[in-house]
Write a structure and sequence with these properties.
three-stranded antiparallel sheet; 16 helices; alpha/beta; single chain
């Protein structure tokens, strides 16, 4: 299968456009962001736009801030398939209000997800561990790797944006008073490695993580319920700030993850814009795809072909029947 998809990638890169190319579509540029989920979605879009809609689709390198800024100021690229809008809300809002940007829809139907997690096998044995009260009551279960007198809470790596929110919630939940030491994993790899090691040994683990990720695709984890609900205003105004003197307990609000286009493209190609609005994945779906990408060392091209070959029930809902028929024909030719 992997060799077949590699061949498919070569065919895709050298393919000529279908004879039914839609004059309203023409050439379209798609930002290929430098993380796995965004690259996967960008390559799915390229395939469907080329073979389903007859566009001359081109991927160009991208990243959140430079891509969004370029779309607002220069009108290019045409499409950014996965924009984490909360991190650049002011820029996106300005682009929409100035009629430079258009929001096609949510590329992640549930939004990006953050939280404090424990392994599923722990909750299976003791359902109370799905709550922060249960975690605190069983603090000694989470043995610190260097000090048996302490309990271990794995935080977000130093220097990451999530470091502040994780530390402030650690304070708000009074985890230090319960005996937990806030461990800096040193890097994203260090954090994911701590989960993998715990899972392989079926040992306790408690800490911060996020989705969609390959780790949550490989290892079943349960998000701990703080019993507080979500205070989005406090989270934005205090929990995420270094100067948050009195953080309150709140669950993480979901992060808005959207597909954004230039307004000019949305007006020129309404059928493509409609497709982009329909094209959405759940965190569970994307977690599984990211795990497959990691296990197979697959890039965005190969992952897109794998998705189109093996998840027809998902992408068929995004496009009209005639487009679907053309995409199916192209997939068979891979």
């Amino acid at each position: 299968m992997k060799n077949m998809m590699l061949i498919g990638g070569l065919l895709l890169s050298s393919a000529t456009l279908p004879a039914f190319a839609d004059a309203q579509c023409g050439k379209v540029t798609i930002a290929d962001m430098n993380w796995s989920s965004a690259s996967l979605i960008a390559n799915v879009d390229r395939f469907i736009l080329e073979y389903g809609y007859g566009c001359e689709a081109e991927l160009i390198p991208g990243d959140t801030m430079p891509t969004s800024t370029s779309m607002v100021e220069k009108g290019e690229p045409d499409i950014a398939p996965e924009i984490w809008s909360n991190s650049i809300k002011e820029l996106i809002d300005r682009g929409v209000s100035n009629h430079r940007l258009a929001i096609a829809g949510n590329s992640l139907s549930e939004g990006g997800e953050e939280g404090f997690w424990v392994p599923q096998y722990m909750v299976d044995k003791d359902p109370s561990l799905a709550t922060i009260a249960g975690i605190i009551a069983n603090a000694k279960t989470f043995v610190h790797p260097e000090d048996p007198e302490l309990s271990a809470f794995y935080g977000c790596p130093a220097g990451w944006a999530c470091q502040l929110s994780a530390e402030n919630l650690y304070r708000a939940l009074k985890l230090e008073d319960a005996g937990f030491d806030l461990i800096d994993p040193g890097s994203g790899a260090g954090l994911s490695g701590s989960i993998a090691r715990a899972y392989e040994r079926q040992k306790p683990w408690f800490g911060y993580y996020w989705a969609p990720t390959a780790i949550l695709g490989k290892y079943k984890m349960v998000k701990v319920d703080f019993g507080s609900g979500i205070d989005a205003d406090h989270f934005r105004d205090c929990t995420t700030k270094e100067e948050c003197a009195e953080p309150k307990v709140t669950m993480y609000p979901s992060s808005l993850v959207q597909t954004v286009t230039t307004t000019a493209f949305a007006e020129k190609s309404p059928q493509i814009f409609e497709y982009l609005g329909n094209r959405s994945l759940t965190n569970t779906q994307l977690n599984g795809l990211l795990a497959w990408m990691e296990d197979n060392q697959a890039d965005g091209i190969i992952a897109a072909e794998y998705f189109l070959m093996n998840h027809e029930d998902t992408w068929l809902k995004w496009v009209p029947a005639d487009v679907a028929a053309r995409v199916k024909t192209a997939i068979k030719a891979l």
